[in-house]
Structure formats: C-alpha cells, structure tokens
Amino acid sequence: MVWATQIVFYGLPWLSMNDRQAMLFDLGSRRFYIFSLVLYPQDLIYLTGLLVVSALSLFLFTAVAGRLWCGYTCPQTVYTEIFMWVERKIEGDRVARMRLDKTPLGVAKLARKTAKHAVWIAIGLWTGFTFVGYFTPIRQLAGEVATFSLGPWESFWVLFYGFATYGNAGWMREQVCKYMCPYARFQSAMFDRDTLIVTYDTARGEGRGARPRSDTPEQYHAKGLGDCIDCGLCVQVCPTGIDIRKGLQYECISCSACIDACDSVMDKMHYPRGLIRNSTQNGITQKLPQAAMFKRVLRPRILIYTAVLAGVTLAMLFSLLTRTPLKVDVVRDRGSVARMVGQGNIENVYRMQVMNATEHGQQYSIAVTGIDGARIVSDAPIEVDAAASRWLAVRVQTPPNAATAGSHPITFTISAQGTTPAVVSEKSVFLVPR
Q1: Using an 8 Å Cβ cutoff, are 357 and 327 in contact?
Q2: What parts of the chain have a pLDDT lower than 70?
C-alpha cells in the first residue's frame, strides 16, 4: 500500500492529457482539470458528492473490517512507515538504534543522524513540492525551483507541507493518531461485535509466561500457562505502543503488525498461528469458523451503507456522464434601463457569461423566446476558446406594442455549433417601459 499510494500521489501530477497536466486544480483561473473533465466553481456539487461518497465508504469499511484506512492508506501511517524504513536502513534495527543512542556523540553517530534527517527533509520537501504541483503546473513549478524564482505563496506551501511531513512522520508519529486524529474518537460508534478487528485469543493465550521450547502443550498447560510466552514483541512492533492483549483500544489502527510478530514467535515455538489474528468479538467468544464470521458481514447496517453508497455513486457518475459541457449565466445590465430605439423598438441589454467546458474552441448561437417578435441584435455566433469563459453584452429588441408595459418572462437558448453539441436555456425578464 505504501508503494501504491505513493506512485499515485507522486506520479499523477506528471501525467499529461490534451497538452496540459492531466490533474490540475487551477485556482487562479477557477478551472479544475480531472483527466478529460473540465470543472468550474459552479460544479461544486460534485465535490459535495465526492465527500459524501468518501464518508460513506469510510463508514462501510470501518463497520466491516475496522480501521483499514488508518492501518493501510492514511498519509500519517504511510509516511511514518516510509520514514521508519529510512531510519532502519541508515541506523539499523531497533537494537542497533538503541545501542547507537547510548553511545557518546562522535563522527560515526553524527554522520548517521545527519544522513537520516537529511533524507527525511528531502522526502518532506519533495512531498510539499508534489502537493503544490496539483495547484500550480508541476513542470512550471520545477522550472521555478531550478531557477530560484519560486513565488512567495508556492514557497510558503512547499515549506509548510514539507515541514508538516517531516514533523508528523519523523517526530510525532503515533502521537498524531493517539491525540490529534478525531477518527479514533468516534470509531467505536461504527464497530459492533461482528466487525473484523485485530483480536487476542484470551482463552488460548492466558496465562502468560516463559517456558522451555521443548515443553509440550500438556506440560505447559499443567503449569497453568497458555500459548502466550509473554515475549512482548506485539507491544514493541505496535506503532501506537498499545498491548493488544488487554483488548481492543481506541489507539489500535488495525495495521496487523502485532499479528505478524506473534505468528513469527508461534512458528519458532512450533505452536499454531493465530494467537493474535483478525477476527470478530463474536468469532472469538463463540469460536466461530471463518465461514460463519463472513456470513455475518451481510447484516442490516452493512446492507444499508452499501445501498446508500451505491445509490450516491451511481447518481454522481450518471450526472458526470450526462453533464452538459456548457454553462451560461444571464443577468440584466443594471447600468442600462429599458429604452426605445429606432422604429419604436423596445430594447433591453443583458450581461451573459458563456463558459466552454470542452477542450477545444466552440461557436455558440443565441436565440430568445417568450415575446412575439423578440430577437437578438448582438453579434453572432459567439466564439469561446477551449476551457475558457467569456462575458458579453446581449441586446434584445421587440417590436412596438409586442407586449404591454411591465415585466415579461423570456428564455435565452444557447446552442453549441461545434463538434460537441450542447444546448442550455436560461430564464430572465424583459422590461417594457410605461
């Protein structure tokens, strides 16, 4: 998961599509490019839908299998794992690091510590650079970094996220999960006795204690001992430092490191694996086989989460697939009142914004309905560049006596004449002076 998440995060900004960055959130021009999609601030509803899908997915996965997000894909967990890997490569395993920390400061110790922190800082800065590259074209950003011409805001955010990555993953680590992350505080509301979690088999493991490896099960059972030899490795490898043998605790992030450690000890002792394993509370207490535990996945709350998640996801996908690549806003020009022009015609002026959400230039024609004889007297057709918007003044005239004095509803119809057909209608009002 470390490899998968980082290949996506670090690699995505470098992908190109249609002579631009494939994934770019251009805040300056208020356009958001997501592969072939071009979204505008008016498309905020899709961000809302994405947040709803993310929340429902989190609820569903947590109810089924505990804190999978925390254990495998959370940036805090992923970057902590990366930083710890760097630490092991430079300073050695846990015993070697403890020995190094106890030695007086010398050239060798200073070199190792400096190298470790230098690599950490480099990873942090590269992470900050990549994050900013989602909002400023990353190739342009790389050129500015190379020529030391980076702007103040880009510099601030690169350093901010670089420092946050270095501090959180290098120094704070599990403290973020234990004391800062709100998810751990309400996870118990999504758990039930059939949620798959990291569990310790108390009936099999207690009582704890050391014993010769040559002891048979009958011999150590006669001494009142279970399969747990009380080696403490499950606590040592836990990123949040808990003892899973005390039961489920809110600090547990379901990373399963304790399972791997315990299984390795069971192998050395020639005991069956699974003293610590992924199971459910009902599975442990009722000694259910795996098939019976998996059957309990299809319980009412899981079915409800799945149905709602599927419904929202399908609705969002349908909306995206049927989305019209044209957006129009029409407002009456408040600086120009209704007036009488040549031949007694009545004229109103409107301000119209036409937004082209395609990746090639388009021509648009404008028509108006609602009053007999109403017509557009502005220039037509209207040309708008690829992924651009244009404000224009639209003049609408009606013949004399076509409508009584007052306000009358009209409808503008804007049609694309290019390779991507689209039609949008916008309502407004036409004022006839008394």
Answers
A1: yes
A2: 379-380, 418-420
Task: Report helix, strand and coil shares of the chain as percent, to nearest 5.
Answer: 50, 20, 30
Q: For residues 8 and 23, give the distance between their C-alpha atoms in angstroms, rounded to a whole number.
A: 11
13-25 core/surface letters (b: 16 or more CB in 10 A; e: else): beeeeeeebebbe
Longest dimension (CA), the chain: 113
Q: Nearest to residue 278, comparing CAs of 206, 201, 226, 188?
A: 201
CA–chain centroid gap for 67, Å, is 16
Question: Six-digit token pair at 269?
Answer: 């002792």
Q: Per-residue pLDDT tens for 304-353?
A: 999 999 999 999 999 888 888 888 999 888 777 788 888 889 999 999 99
Beta bridge partners of 279: 197
User: Can you give the pLDDT at residue 80?
Assistant: 93
H helices, E strands: number in the chain: 17, 16
All domains in the chain, ordered by first residue: 2-182 (no CATH), 197-279 (no CATH), 326-432 (2.60.40.10)
